[in-house]
Each structure stands twice: as C-alpha cells, then as structure tokens.
Please model this.
Amino acid sequence: MRRLIVALIIIAIIIAVAYWVLTADISALPQPGRLETRVAAHFRNWYISRGAGRLSIKPPVYSASEVSQGEGLFGMACASCHGKDGRHPTNIGKSMYPRVPDLGSREVQKLSNTELFWVVKNGVRLSGMPGFGNTLSNDNIWQLTFYVRSLGESPKSKPSSRIGYPPGRRPLLQKTPRFVLTVTDGRRPAALRPLP
Ligand code: HEC
Model:
C-alpha cells in the first residue's frame, strides 16, 4: 500500500513537471508575474548581498564631482536601457524580461553602496543587466555607483561641491526652519514667526 502511494506521488510530480514544461513560454512580452518577480528578487538580493559581503574594497569619498563623472559614464554605458536619467527606462529596457527598474526606486535604493558597486561590476546573470568589470575600472564603477545613489536623493541633499560627506549619509541640517523674533512692546518677545 505504501509503495502504491509513493508511486502515485511520483507520477503526480512527473505530470506536474511535464505540464509546466509544456505550457511554459519563453516570450518576453507578458508582464512578469508578481510571485515570479518576488521570488526572483529574493534570490537576486541574496546573491548580491553575499557577493558584496565578500568584497574588500574601500569606496572613494562621495562627492559632487564623482557623481557628475558617473553621470557622464552613465550616458554612454547605461542610458540605452535605463534611460538618460536612470529613472525612465527606454523602450528596450521596458521590453526586457525582467523589466529594467527605475534606479531611483526604493527597491534599488535600498541596496548599499557596496551592493550597487557589485551589481554594476558583475551584472545579473539571466536578466540582461551586463557586468562592466571587464570594461570599466573600479574608479569608474564607483562613480557610476554614486550617480545611481544620487538618483534616490532629493536635489537639496545632493552633495555640494565643497563638502564631501560619507556615502549614504545626508547632511544633518537639511531643513532648518528660519524664524524671526518680533518684539512688540519693547520688553517681551511676542512671537516667533517663520520667515515668509
Ligand atoms: C542591456 C541593458 C542594460 C544596460 C546597458 C545596463 N543595464 Fe542595469 N539593468 C538591466 C536590467 C534588465 C536590470 C534588471 C535586473 C534584475 O531585475 O535582476 C538592471 C538592473 C540594474 C540595477 C539594479 C539591480 C537590482 O538588483 O535591482 C542597477 C543598479 C543597474 N542596473 C545599474 C546599471 C548601470 C550603472 C549601467 C551602466 C554602467 C547599467 N545598469 C547598464 C539592464 C541593463
């Protein structure tokens, strides 16, 4: 009896696999399914974080000039898929499977600088994202990394050309409210009122 049950289970698995193989499709046209995207993203992120964890490389200091060098390189090496601004993929990017992501999105920006560096250097196998480790220097790849990082920031918090602050950190006083003190009767400060 036990053998019969085991045989039935094996037959059921074979039928399921055969059904999956026969109905599967390699067309890149359909929108990738939600489950497929989540599972793929999970494995991809795991591999990226493992790869980045093995890197022992010190990033240069994040600065406006690194970002603008990266922007120049981006136009030449990446814009054909990711779009000129990295945020609006081209028609080619939109037709790839998986689709090319918006590099300013939370999904991409949650990667650390080292993880972004690892992705640009190594690429993502089976996805169409090329690895640039054989064609660009590490310095260039850091510049691209910093440019990608800058896409997730509001224009205000982009690095100024004078002060370089550590990668991933924003300046502490981004939005300091400014007030004027008005003294009405000569003795007591009456009101703190924000500057117009
Ligand atoms: C031929 C098209 C193509 C080019 C050129 C290209 N990419 Fe990509 N890129 C992709 C695709 C497709 C993905 C999505 C990969 C995935 O979903 O796993 C991607 C994903 C990424 C990601 C996000 C990875 C993640 O885990 O979400 C980053 C960052 C990135 N690319 C940066 C770059 C940079 C920087 C360049 C230029 C040096 C570049 N790409 C050039 C197709 C391209």
